[in-house]
Specification:
This protein has one domain. The chain is built from four helices and three strands. It has helices spanning 3-10, 17-32, 88-97, 115-133, and strands at 49-59, 62-72, 76-78. A three-stranded antiparallel β-sheet has the order 1-2-3, sandwiched between helices. The radius of gyration is 18 Å and the shape is globular.
C-alpha cells in the first residue's frame, strides 16, 4: 500500500473507532512494510504482537481490566482514537445551503484539532502509560 492509497482510504473515515481500528492498523502495517499482528491465543503469555491485548490497570488500590488496541511486547503499544474533521454545525450549514436535511454523523471522540481532541489524545497516552506500569 502506498501513502496516497492509505490517505485516500482513511481520510473520509470518522466516528466509528470500533468498526475501523483493526482495519486501520492492518493497513498501517502494510504501509510501513511490517508484519500484521498475530491472532490472539487463549494464553496471554504467548500473545506477543496482537490486537486487543488485555491489560490490568491499577489506580492506587483500584484495579480494572482494559484493552490496548495494538500491543507488541517489549516494543510498543498503540491506542487508536477516532475523530472527525468537520464539526456538526458546519456540516448542517453546508447541507442547508444545498436545501438538504442534516444527516446524523458519527462523531468519534471529538473533532480533530479541537480542545476535546487534545484531551482524548492525552487520555490515550495515560492509558498507555498505565498499561506499561502494569
Amino acid at each position: 500500500m502506498t501513502y496516497p492509497e492509505f490517505e485516500a482510504r482513511w481520510r473520509p473515515a470518522g466516528g466509528a473507532e470500533r468498526a475501523n481500528y483493526g482495519l486501520f492498523l492492518q493497513d498501517l502495517c502494510d504501509l510501513l512494510g511490517v508484519l500484521r499482528p498475530d491472532p490472539t491465543t487463549d494464553n496471554p503469555q504467548q500473545d506477543q504482537y496482537v490486537l486487543e491485548r488485555a491489560v490490568e490497570f491499577r489506580d492506587g488500590s483500584k484495579k480494572s481490566t482494559g484493552r490496548i488496541d495494538l500491543y507488541k511486547r517489549g516494543c510498543f503499544i498503540f491506542e487508536t482514537k477516532q475523530g472527525t474533521d468537520t464539526p456538526d454545525q458546519q456540516q448542517k450549514s453546508e447541507r442547508a445551503e444545498l436545501g438538504l436535511p442534516a444527516e446524523k454523523r458519527r462523531k468519534g471522540h471529538a473533532v480533530r484539532g479541537s480542545v476535546k481532541w487534545e484531551q482524548m489524545m492525552h487520555a490515550a497516552r495515560q492509558q498507555g502509560l498505565f498499561s506499561l506500569a502494569a
